[in-house]
Write a structure and sequence with these properties.
Elements lengths: L8 H47 L1 E5 L13 E6 L12 E2 L1 H8 L9 E2 L18 E4 L8 E7 L4 E5 L2 E4 L2 E2 L1 E4 L3 E4 L15 E3 L5 E5 L1 E5 L4 E6 L9 E5 L4 E5 L22 E2 L3 E11 L10 H4 L13 E2 L5
Antiparallel strand pairs: 1-2, 2-19, 3-4, 5-6, 5-19, 6-17, 7-8, 7-16, 8-9, 10-14, 11-13, 12-13, 14-15, 15-20, 17-18
């Protein structure tokens, strides 16, 4: 009986090598496809984030004392982009060169995004209400500012000794108990900004005692302001607000460059076009006291208590007849 020999290893090698070659050849396009899918996924994620920033909501950081006592330096907010519709200031288009200079070269930049060409009107536009806190881009600037809307198109606004006069009627003011805030890295309570406000507790803790005046607009919106000293812009002749414009003021009436101030003084030069409004401030997400450093422990110790979740939609009392 003839014995059939099993195939030797050498006879199988060509088939094995051929199969190995096929696997190796197929792996290359698979890796390229996987890499492309990763890039495409990241690109789509970036587009989704930019679309969300442009049309739904975006974060905002408070850099100045102009909106105290309601907003403190170091507050982080959520700003909704849709309440007033959208305009040329709405889209967020990153500027890679500005981001590189700011992130890598540590240079100060006015803005990290491109500004679109100015155009009149808004898509599905709505006017803000009196008392809304809004972000906007002033003419000649690429930075977002934040102020409160006081006057609407068709109103006539004036000031007498710091009191707002809307359409010939003084806005209601009520003196409140003094507000005592702790002094920290983001609130130094300087004598220039807050005369005679700096104090010290029995335990040596420094505090800032602020004179508060509560203001109530004709639509019933009520909020606190700071008005502790006399400044030149406490008085302003009657000013008609034209169609398509709103009059902006900071809640810190002593330290806010707003619609009361000329452009040459660093102000807004009067009412602001509604196309320049980018959104409405909604809520404080968290707040830091200025002690944050590279040490991760300070990321938690620098958080201010009681600020997270603070609504920025103003209180509303019964509307005046």
């Amino acid at each position: 009986m003839t014995e059939t020999a099993d195939p030797t290893q050498s006879e199988l090698d060509p088939a094995i090598e051929a199969e190995s070659d096929v696997v190796t050849t197929d792996e290359k396009p698979s890796r390229l496809r996987a890499f492309w899918e990763e890039i495409k996924g990241l690109f789509l994620l970036l587009l989704a984030v930019l679309a969300f920033h442009s049309f739904i909501a975006k974060p905002f950081y408070i850099p100045s004392i102009s909106m105290m006592p309601n907003l403190l330096v170091g507050d982080r907010l959520v700003v909704s982009k849709y309440p007033y519709g959208w305009s040329f200031v709405s889209p967020t288009i990153p500027n890679p060169a500005a981001i590189f200079r700011w992130l890598v070269l540590r240079q100060d930049e006015d803005a990290l995004a491109f500004m679109m060409e100015e155009k009149k009107g808004r898509v599905w536009g709505e006017l803000p209400e009196r008392g809304d806190i809004v972000i906007f881009t002033p003419k000649g600037s690429s930075q977002d500012w934040i102020k409160r809307v006081i006057g609407l198109p068709g109103d006539t606004i004036a000031l007498i000794d710091g009191q707002v006069i809307l359409n010939g009627v003084p806005v209601q003011q009520e003196v409140q108990p003094r507000l005592v805030l702790p002094v920290d890295g983001n609130n130094d309570c300087s004598e220039i900004d807050f005369p005679s406000a700096l104090g010290k507790e029995a335990d040596g803790t420094l505090t800032c005692s602020l004179q508060i005046v509560r203001e109530t607009l004709p639509n019933g919106v009520s909020y606190n302001t700071i008005d502790a000293k006399q400044i030149h812009h406490d008085n302003m002749a009657p000013l008609p607000i034209p169609a398509g414009y709103v009059f902006m003021m900071g809640d810190n009436r002593d330290n806010s460059s707003d619609s009361r101030f000329a452009l040459e003084e660093g102000g807004l030069g009067g009412p602001v076009a509604w196309e320049r409004i980018g959104g409405r401030a909604e809520i404080v997400t968290f707040s830091v006291d200025g002690s944050t450093s590279l040490n991760p422990a300070t990321w938690f110790s620098s958080l201010r208590g009681g600020r997270a979740g603070t609504s920025l939609r103003p209180d509303k009392v019964a509307e005046k007849k």
